[in-house]
Amino acid sequence: MFGLAEPAGRQKPGRSGGFPNMASVGDFNVLGASIPATKVELSVSCRNLLDRDTFSKSDPICVLYTQAIGNKEWREFGRTEVIDNTLNPDFVRKFIMDYFFEERENLRFDFYDVDSKSPNLSKHDFLGQMFCTLGEIVGSQGSRLEKSIVGIPGKKCGTVIVTAEELGCCRDSVLMQFCANKLDKKDFFGKSDPFLVFHRSNEDGSFTICHKTEVIKNTLNPVWQAFKISVRALCNGDYDRTIKVEVYDWDRDGSHDFIGEFTTSYRELSRGQSQFNVYEVINPKKKGKKKKYVNSGTVTLLSFLIETEVSFLDYIKGGTQINFTVAIDFTASNGNPSQPTSLHYMNPYQLNAYGMALKAVGEIIQDYDSDKMFPALGFGARLPPDGRVSHEFALNGNPQNPYCHGIDGVMEAYYRSLKSVQLYGPTNFAPVINHVARYAASVKDGSQYFVLLIITDGVISDMAQTKESIVNASKLPMSIIIVGVGPAEFDAMEELDGDVVRISSRGKFAERDIVQFVPFRDYIDRSGNHVLSMARLAKDVLAEIPEQFLSYMRVRGIKPSPAPPPYTPPIHVLQTQI
């Protein structure tokens, strides 16, 4: 978020924390799996519901269900209030949901006409239902989705309007500064080398690390630099949740000495510099042993400043479109598509790895693209009729218009081209990256952002050209996702990912980190549950996109467009015949 750690769900292998004896203080992930990207509030209205009451109008209620990823089971999430005697309800009770860009959250809204006090839904008249995803609501114009209610054959069940509003506390950050006085001396030859470690408490009483200050050498009265942290990371938006702060004396060998700790909360800290924000640092062991023990020093809050960040959803709500392009590797190393050993094998009963990666990522991104038309490209094949090798060909066979309708259209074009082209080589990425970059270069005003998904089986042949393409593309509104399928060594891809070392070409470094690489084999579910492996894959490859998107907008100074004015649904007054 603020250069503190990896985005959610992304654990890097092979990184050792500098604190081997303190797992909690080592490498940490500010936005750990439990912290949602943000929270959104859903408001529900209906128009022209079915009338199930003989002498008056229906008394509607809305019940929201969410779907578990693995077993597809629907679970009740919540209910609105009942509104008496109306076919055009605007429900007051909202649904507050965690929103992750990188996850597909399936929703089902069921409507009933309530006839009694019974909480059992089967005792009431069903008025119909609507299915959608949370991304579909957020990605609609003005984050407002209007859809027909279905579910009763032969009847018009009316329409439902669902509006999503991002909750404010999720986008606040705080800038805080602390100092300490008279800390315990821990070093034999000098004073202590103190630093602070902040933890937020979780629902189950455990603690998760969320920030570490720098070390101030050789002092018992340190003043740490001010630091910025999101309110989500600090307390998950819960102002009264306990925040535990530990004070340590830094040691070169990693065996840092514990000086003491104190607890506070966001609400207490938000009072700013005052007598309330001077904390005694307590070492429970010392306190237990020494009768005269008072404290191990004090820590004082010097300043507390709230800043509101613009969020990814502000841009989406203001109308920014995310354009999705897919590029598929048709090199001969994939194996003959008619053989079951081939990575391109068309098994009638299940998707191959290319199909799974494409569907997993595409089905989430398509919610943010209003026309649902996606360019689909191939590279590394010989094309009919003359067998020329191409590294940038349209899967649908139409170079003037490589667009396919929806992810299903892309899948269809992929299967069709497997039957007509000859797998060949080499594996060149630069042409497809440059293809998308040409489009991205023509709209730099923040109204569109481009995501290129490259699915490949292997070792790249044009490394120098690809690096140059990526360095050039890092100035443009685009991100690149590379999914490696099959058993090959993908070391070169890690270099393109640029998370460890920023990628460079001819002495020029990439302006932003725009490449995310993952090997598909890391996601294959051993129990054979492809739905789970696809969900995990999508989560990891898409988790960095909102931050990459925001980094482009920030560097360019592009502010979100204002959202269209809020919609007030018209109430249709039905003229009654006398």
From TrEMBL:
Similarity remark: Belongs to the copine family.
Annotated GO MF terms: calcium-dependent phospholipid binding; metal ion binding
GO biological process: cellular response to calcium ion
PANTHER family: COPINE, COPINE-8
Domain C2: start-end pairs: 16-147, 156-279
Chloroplast in keyword set: no
Biological role stated in the UniProt entry: Probable calcium-dependent phospholipid-binding protein that may play a role in calcium-mediated intracellular processes.
Protein name, entry field: Copine-8
PROSITE patterns registered for this protein in UniProt: C2 (PS50004), VWFA (PS50234)
UniProt keyword list: Calcium, Metal-binding, Phosphoprotein, Repeat
Superkingdom of the organism of origin: Eukaryota
Residue ranges constituting the VWFA domain according to the UniProt record: 323-524
